[in-house]
Fold each of these.
Amino acid sequence: MPREITSFSNDTVKLLRSLRDKKARREEGLFLAEGLRILTEARDSGRLPEIIAYSDKGTLHPLAAEIVAATEAAGGDVIVTSPDILSKMSGKDNPQAILGAYRQPDTSLAALDRSAAPLWLVAQSLRDPGNIGTILRTGDAAGAGGLILLDDCVDPYSVEAVRASMGAIFTQSVAAASWDAFLPWLRGGAGQLVGTSLNTDYDYLAPAYEQPCFVLIGNESQGLPADYEAACDLLVKMPMLGRADSLNAAAAAAVMAYAVRASWRNR
Amino acid sequence: MPREITSFSNDTVKLLRSLRDKKARREEGLFLAEGLRILTEARDSGRLPEIIAYSDKGTLHPLAAEIVAATEAAGGDVIVTSPDILSKMSGKDNPQAILGAYRQPDTSLAALDRSAAPLWLVAQSLRDPGNIGTILRTGDAAGAGGLILLDDCVDPYSVEAVRASMGAIFTQSVAAASWDAFLPWLRGGAGQLVGTSLNTDYDYLAPAYEQPCFVLIGNESQGLPADYEAACDLLVKMPMLGRADSLNAAAAAAVMAYAVRASWRNR
């Protein structure tokens, strides 16, 4: 049976609310996902929330009712509450009618199975949670196995990143590591490391990329450090026809991911 | 000579501050751009601000000093002020050390010269200012002439869109129109209208796109309306290998823009 919560000062309300904060997410090992679309994506990927909360106003959508029932059957905490309290949990004025708190998976490189997909995206020190979510979503669409976050990236489990991923946070593997840990891991198995750079004339459409291909995307304002570029198996250049010589990091990741896939069409 | 402003209640402070609001931007015909990188992009595109404000702390960067001098020579209003007042103008806790208010250009379709570029991006009812800015930036990199905003798009001159454009708001032409005005304008000259859709099997890499090519991007959550798709000369599909069958609108625009350019490589 769902628990009804009517008090803003309830401990579970406070717990869910706290998950907007990175420190609390790390301590609890949980993260927040909001809205039926993302919760359905999670369920379809075999993931159920540990806590689920929905509004006591209106009828529950049949898909939402299914997820609530499955969460309850799995021993999860099911909460029915007011839109105002949902709003407090999500920190938004117009909250989604349902949200869930999910266990964060293991993000060690050791947990990553590189043979699971021919394409992997790797991002270095990305600072914008929207970019991380968008890159996860692109990875899902382009058939990547997941996203490896190097060095000082923002948290992929932030509310903003989860939202921008449109559920790809559940379909893509996520790993986090320093460059110094990543490079030996990469070289311990098959894999071509491809960086995009302005310091080469080698066109991004020229190579027949190897599998698995690891596409390395640099920080939003600095691009890739020189020694990271030097460690790549291949540096390629996307044409930059404008004045600014740059693309948004998530846009560059999308162009590269689809170019790599395109190079495999006639294999 | 620069005017020194020390009062938060100064009229120019209030004016600049008001430009965070769409209604004020429309009434004043101005918009705000912040930071030396974007102001330099503007200057290099032949655009100077009508009002320029910079911090009285520290030495002015030589590039900034050049832009300030050029603005003054052109009869612009030059303001030196405190970081706190700059912060109030920009609405940010850590404001850039320089900002400018620029005249909004004519965004009518009649002002657009389609022969100026082989590629144009067209977006329908985009709701996210970051997406609009990112698409402008992608257009700059991919050699597009500009961005045509259809129907109910958010304002391309918002602070968020200008920031995400990284200066491409000054290098790309921008037009805004309803679909009902756009279609006759398009058909009044040369141009292939290409939509991306899940309702076709025609692969996005198959065509040799015509010039000028108008790439039509749908709203973030709905995609393109059926009658817009029906009016396209060509519908193409990008492979969607994941569960979600969707890409972020700005990511999709980037993949399509580069695919269209790639189809012209061997002409």
Amino acid sequence: MSRQRVVIVGGGFAGLYTALAIEKALAKEDDIELILVSKENYFVFQPMLPELLSGSIGIMDVVSPLRRLLGRADLHVREVESVDLERQELHAAPGFRPQPHIIHYDHLVLALGAVTDFRGLRGLPEHALPFKNLGDALQLRNHVIHALEEAAIESDPRLRRSLLTFVIAGGGFSGVEVAAELNDFVREVARSYRGLDAGEIRVVLIHSGTRILPEVSEKLALFAERILGRRGVEIRLQTRLDAATGEEAVLKGGERLSTRTLVSTIPSSPHPLLDALDLPKAKNRRLEVDSRLRVCGTENIWALGDAAAVPTPDGGLHPATAQHAIRQAGVAAHNIVAAIRGGEARTFDFKGLGKMGSLGHRCAVAEVFGFQISGFLAWWMWRTIYLMKLPGWGRRLKVATSWTLDVLLPPELVQLKLGGTRGIDREHFEPNQEVFREGDLGDRMYIILTGRVEVVRLRDGEEDRIAELGPGESFGEMALLNKTTRTATVRCVEATDALSLPKGDFAALTTNIPDMRRSFEGLMESRATALGARSRKD
Amino acid sequence: MSRQRVVIVGGGFAGLYTALAIEKALAKEDDIELILVSKENYFVFQPMLPELLSGSIGIMDVVSPLRRLLGRADLHVREVESVDLERQELHAAPGFRPQPHIIHYDHLVLALGAVTDFRGLRGLPEHALPFKNLGDALQLRNHVIHALEEAAIESDPRLRRSLLTFVIAGGGFSGVEVAAELNDFVREVARSYRGLDAGEIRVVLIHSGTRILPEVSEKLALFAERILGRRGVEIRLQTRLDAATGEEAVLKGGERLSTRTLVSTIPSSPHPLLDALDLPKAKNRRLEVDSRLRVCGTENIWALGDAAAVPTPDGGLHPATAQHAIRQAGVAAHNIVAAIRGGEARTFDFKGLGKMGSLGHRCAVAEVFGFQISGFLAWWMWRTIYLMKLPGWGRRLKVATSWTLDVLLPPELVQLKLGGTRGIDREHFEPNQEVFREGDLGDRMYIILTGRVEVVRLRDGEEDRIAELGPGESFGEMALLNKTTRTATVRCVEATDALSLPKGDFAALTTNIPDMRRSFEGLMESRATALGARSRKD
């Protein structure tokens, strides 16, 4: 009999713990070949990610290399692009060589987790920062430090206030923890910035419900609201984020918050790979599984964690938490091994041990075995549980020591610029928003995708409207070609989406693609003629 | 009398220590306004950067936030783009708002350091990795881990060997330390990769001289060569890097090393901002200063560190090391304060205390006060000196503890993917190199800048030459438009430079710029016709 190959997709709690449980079952036999496919080569302890913001844990304390955790399993660090259910194959993105990477499976475990999906939300894909993985957390931290650095030397009070306003959408555990940690961090480090008034800092948490933390009891939620409020977080209830631009968060009802930092922890959706799969899905777009975690209607496909809609005995769904994922992993592993070797399948049921959320600054709320705990004790429990979950004693000792020493040291405020330069990008603008102003430095040109803009110039203190442009038309290229400042202001008449090209890319393209150069030369000529005619007319 | 403003550009050893020394002189008086302009908001302890590669020190242990080090000085985190000597103004790059940031100065201190400058070297700007700053070190570390991950699942032995070959050009302190740490790291972590044979790993150090480490005595250099050789570093003397492609390092004499990781620590040049400045320069392109560190022919411009050619009393030049920069900073600060307040100027002279270079794995070479030390003792001295230079006791304690605990823990192998996606890019190819192969996945299209390529297809096992293309012509767009694999192989006839556009950018541009779409549609049609004609002809 040939070895059966089990392929697990996803290196989070669900995927990793399934692999570990199958490895355990393999202890004496070698009848199963195990492959874990993960986009990253590390496992992230996701519940602790927000603590990275304030620096209360280090980057390396929140991640563990998957290879060090796995024993017999082979790790493929690749992103899965599609699944061929017919041929039982995964197609992964190419690596150094542009060749498809195909992995055959006998049993497939879909443990892809969830993503923050901004599609269909006005301006959010372009301008809101998600908070889901390690990269998001580091990017947000660096962005916040950048905003502080700029605020410290900005003389325009409007822009300075906007740089010092931080908006977080979503008042569940995730949003509350981000708001709490971000608030702690900016208020603490602001002291190191000469000439930066802590009174100008605003941290705003937006939530659609009548109270934050719907996951816990009202008592704990109100405790959290009080604590956060006292520390300077403004909580806006019964409203939601309606749209975003590079400069504003637009709330339902029309209120606009001027900000350069907008984080949204909602909405959470299943991994986009699932959309393309012809497998049964529940109403929440997650994979429909039976209580044995097998995808309904299949023989050899399993799903668990945030990617699966796991039924409770009374017809509801289990919540998507790390605790549940870890226990589902044990059941899935058992059932897969049973399906291969023969044996009785187990069903999954778990009530949850409790819920915990950090409020930053040595304070948390927790509901454990029916008890409600808040403050330092809850925070201490939270930390201890985390430390126990860390793999290996050496690592635990290191993290515990670093936590102890952190008491001595102020938080780091090193801004690691690793993002490279911004390339060709989409941007969203709301009505009346200025894309750029006469006199600004020209660093990008724009092509309108939808919407309309007007081009205006100041003449003797009066605004002169030169042109109105619509979809397919471009603007801003004159400053790039002539290497000068913007000669006019461009303002949106309607909500506008545009493609923007940085100076360098624009130069490379117009220099090397003759048609593109001719196209823009023609455009420039007609613009110059229009401007000339207008000048003569005056 | 109004306050005089001293502006220091550069946050390395030279700039930071000048600021600190001026702050000390300001202790009681407030007659000088001090501004430090730095591209990054942190100071890097540069001599320790290579140790980051092996993980023998942590990211946060090698940097300190400048704000925490500075007292009275204002920090502007910006990149300086130009200096107007006439108006005594610095022009810095814009921040969140596209407005120029102008800083007036009464005294200007140019402490910009040096950069790795690959300009004019065939293929190096496109394909060699520099090793100068923190970003370079992190990028190299992540790249190396990526190569190991790919090698672990690569079935083609040629590609696997190329992924496991690491080439370092430059046998001075910097190149030797990079080679040593990189070698330690890959050989240590390779054990965590199942199915990766450590025997396949090659680390090659290329040096033009007859021995490495020209900075120290022959005895120490030969010791270093022996140690490195024993640990598996191949040393190639009396040769140099002639060119680079994405797949090969080409040595003088024509030898080609197949590699995906090429690091070059040479050549080191002064900051490009200096090129544009109308100030006297020495033969090595550094700023000419007198022994008081004033730029020759100026009254209020000072230069030190790697940016300056500082004369010795006997007509030579002082070496560009951190030790020298720190001591120059004291002299420059004294002389600037003296120039403002009145007082006697001091001249700079310093013989150097010694030289040290780490060979990795608790081993180093050092020349101190004429003594030659090698092995563990030299390494221990090196570490101790570093620890003493760290600012603050809390920080020192933290780093010392983490070093102690590191003995317990294997090095991290977390690959942080922070680089974002690769945008429009230049690539260099050598003669006979394949840009892509028939059957590859199509992820980029190319526009030839210089050189010639041939387009060939396999027909019944024979190569059929379809076309030859030259400057201004493009290829590879068919696979992008039709979303299929490459229909032909493109091979360079001569050395070729090309602009490459990723799939996403190409789609955005052809969808939204009508001229560009028409241009490529026309091209596609003519290609299809040519292919059709060829097929009929056969």
